[in-house]
Amino acid sequence: MKTGKSLKFWQWETIVVSMVVYAIYYFVRKNFSIAMPGLTAEYGISNTSFGIVMFIASLTYGFSRFINGFIVEKVSTRAFMAIGLVLGVLSFVFMPQIVDWLGSDQQMAYYSILYGRMLAAALPFSILQMTFTPFFMTAERPDLGTKFTIICGLVNIVLDAIFIGWLQWGIAGAAAATIASQMVGSIGPLLYFSTKRNHSSFGIAA
C-alpha cells in the first residue's frame, strides 16, 4: 500500500512539474517573437531569414523524431553517439562555411560562428544529458530525472543573468551558460550511476 501511494505521488509530481517546465519553455519561445524586431534592427536580419531558419529547425526536429522512431531499436546507441560526435566535429570545423551558406552578414557571422563552435565543442555533454534522462526511468528514479531537469534550467537562467547581464560576455556568455547547464545534466547523472547511492540494478561499472 505504501509503495502504491509513493508511486502515485511521484506520478502526479512528474506530471505537474512537466506541465510547469513546458509552460515556461513555450513562454520563452513567445518572448523570442517579441525580441525579433530588436534583433532585426540591430543585426539586419530580415523576417524572411528568421522564418527560414525557424522553419528548417522545426522541419529537421520533426523529421528526425519521425525517423528515430523507426530505427531506435535497430541501431546501436553507441553508433548514434558516435555519429553525433562526428557531426559535432564537422560542425565545429565547417561552421564558417555553414554560416556563410545561410547568408549571414559579417557582424552576424562573427556571433553565429562563436556561439555555434562553443556549443559544438560541448556536444558530448549535450549527448550525455539527453542519454541519461531516460536512464532514470529505467533505474526507477523518475524523480531524480525531473530534479536534474529543473536544476539544469535554473543553472542556465542564473548564469545567463551573470554572464550576460553582469559580466557583459554577450553571446559567449549565453553559450557558456548553456554549456554549464549541459555539464550539470551530464556529469551529475554520471556520478550518480557510478556510485553506491544508485540502489537499482542499472548502473555504470567502475
Question: What is the structure about, briefly put?
Answer:
With 206 residues, the chain is an all-alpha fold.
List the helices and strands and how they pair.
Layout: H1 2-43, H2 47-71, H3 77-93, H4 95-101, H5 106-121, H6 123-138, H7 142-166, H8 171-194
Helix pairs in contact: 1-7, 3-5, 4-5, 5-8, 6-7, 6-8, 7-8
What is the mean predicted local confidence, pLDDT? 77
Stretches where pLDDT is under 50 for at least 5 consecutive residues are: none
How many separate helices? 8
Largest sheet: none
Broad shape: globular
The H/E string reads HHHHHHHH
Structural class determined from secondary elements: mainly alpha
Helix content: over 70%
Rg over CA atoms: 20 Å
Proportion of beta-strand residues: under 5%
Please give a structural write-up:
- With 206 residues, this protein is an all-alpha fold.
- Helix content is 83%, strand content 0%.
- It has 8 helices and no strands.
- The protein has helices at 2-43, 47-71, 77-93, 95-101, 106-121, 123-138, 142-166, 171-194.
- Helix 6 (123-138) runs antiparallel to helix 7, helix 6 (123-138) runs parallel beside helix 8 and helix 7 packs antiparallel against helix 8.
- The mean pLDDT is 77.
